[in-house]
């Protein structure tokens, strides 16, 4: 790619210098658990004989009486021998398999890299000097807190880099197998060495319960994911991490990058197999088509050096959107069009492009696995080193509705992950990716999840007579001699004209329930031409539908900002990267700012009506569906009661 990343190279010599220390950890060490419960002794071990009068072990721990050691556990230490553990993963084989050997190589490489990154962190902070002072007994008591915080930060860094790189290196061996490792407990932050010992001790226990060598890679991958999640959660509140998170590191030999606590994604094939559609092949759906085309160009404004998009800073970037419409109205065609545009733009600019769809295969019967699949999908798309486009087609089948007895636990897990990822406390919108949710039945999507869609695309398909003529001509192709007749082919699809007409149609609401609210408010306070009157209209909508909350207002204002950016980046900027794409961030920001439009009252009214129309439409359908189900249930009960009484007589 042409955009250079500001990466610090981790020298190969620095990594290999850590190989002996990493190998020593893998060969064996003793660890007394601090947080997790000690593992039970092997069941095959016979109890030792005792002399008469000596009581048997009660299982109670011995508590040291030495001052300063009374709070430390005296549980028996368990020897950890990972090389032996992994080598003997398949008891039926006398020799180590190539897969086992590659796992050991990857583990040593990951541990050594983590240690090398730890040394770089020491150099960029005061940790190195404080460690020397502590060894020599010269540590200033006033700096003990700083020393402890730096050690904890280095511990978190070492754990995350180890799990991150091991997962990255094992991705090539990943299979369809799945494993569940449960929650990790032995996450220590006293110092980096003890932190690695605690994590590897817990990994050894997990591997000891593993059933067969076929589960080796899935088990290790699941452990890596759990460890990264736990460490990233702690890192969110830990101090002294800026020296690590503000830099990016790269291991050239493995094509591996360290970007803070963001998991790396193994490089996959960049060839996207999809039947792309051109914008001219999308008939109708004018607003959805126009916004999809704009969004594709917005994504291309992402700056890989700054790791930020000017549109995300100025306001007007669409991070999540929902497209809803009847079956056959063109949702899949819109996906194919947008993915095709991004694929072509990225190929021209030399940017990596990644597309993924969260499918029903992600729903798993194992507890927690559906959530893991959803998180993997999110991580793959939000990777700041790529331009990403993620879709969740038929989201009403994937994400369960809370309180609905028909929703499986796997569906509810996916709902929770999507809600947290799209608008959670740790959500960071860089502007390098977007997520599209599509459904024929949006009323079946959980209300809170649906409201996390920042933009709404009504996919209503062809509407006018001209649309149907254009669609018929397009699908017939050229292998016929039927005359066109009196029709200006594709004139109705002229995007600017069609979009202007579509926006104007929302100057008044479309849904009957919302029309009553709109007319009532205007009848009481007059034209909606001030912020106060617009706010009164929003309050009236909320009184009519309690689901119209503060998040709805935020989504509306975001859509208004998108309208303020209602300009199309010139095609020439996409075709010739030097005109825009390869310029520095400040220049991109200035170029985009010059094109912005002022916000008008008409924009605000239209966006309020567009959003509220969609919510009323969803609510009406949801309520009607619930009423129909209740009527059906009552009818069945009535018939059952009738038959029961007939049988008694």
From TrEMBL:
The keyword Membrane does not apply. Transmembrane segments: none annotated. GO terms for molecular function: ATP binding. It comes from the Bacteria. The keyword DNA damage does not apply. Residues 38-60 are annotated as: Disordered. SUPFAM superfamilies: P-loop containing nucleoside triphosphate hydrolases. Pfam families: AAA. Residues 325-458 form the ATPase AAA-type core domain. Keywords: ATP-binding, Nucleotide-binding. This is ATP-binding protein. It comes from Labrys neptuniae.
